[in-house]
Design goal:
- The chain is built from 2 helices and no strands.
- It has helices spanning 3-26, 40-100.
- The termini are far apart.
Length: 101
């Protein structure tokens, strides 16, 4: 069971319920929003609003993932640089020890 996935699905459902209420109010509706399928133009407006929210969230997620990947790449480069420097120092030390023998 993937609790992160379940949480994302739950959040998306909550967002859609919220958007239905907001769009209903913007269209002049009173009380609870019309159930899906009753007012097609309302359903279309809700889907468009939800699509915009999802697009923004998707772009934010992609940007976050790119930043994480970039940070990981920098960490990897740093680790490789440290390893290379340690190897260089070790080789110098060995060469110096050999010259003393």
């Amino acid at each position: 069971v993937d609790s992160d996935f379940d949480n994302r699905v739950s959040l998306m459902k909550e967002q859609k319920v919220y958007l239905r209420k907001q769009v209903w109010a913007q269209l002049g509706g009173d009380g609870e929003p019309a159930p899906p399928g009753v007012v097609p133009s309302f359903d279309k407006a809700v889907e468009e609003a939800f699509g915009k929210v999802r697009h923004v969230k998707s772009a934010e997620t992609q940007a976050t993932n790119e930043k994480k990947a970039e940070a990981e790449a920098k960490t990897f480069d740093f680790d490789a640089d440290v390893a290379a420097e340690m190897a260089r120092l070790e080789n110098e030390l060995r060469a110096e020890l050999r010259s003393r023998e």
